[in-house]
Amino acid sequence: MLKIKAVKLQPNEPFTWASGWKSPIYCDNRKTLSYPTIRTFIRQKFTQIVESKFGKPDVIAGIATGGIPQGVLVAQDLGLPFIYVRSNVKDHGLGNLIEGSYEKGQKVILVEDLISTGGSSLLGVKALKDAGLKVKGLVAIFSYGFETAKEGFDKVNCPFYTLTDYDHLVKEALTQEYIREEDLAHLKKWRELPDRWEPEL
Question: What architecture is the 7-192 domain classified under in CATH?
Answer without folding.
Answer: 3-Layer(aba) Sandwich (3.40)
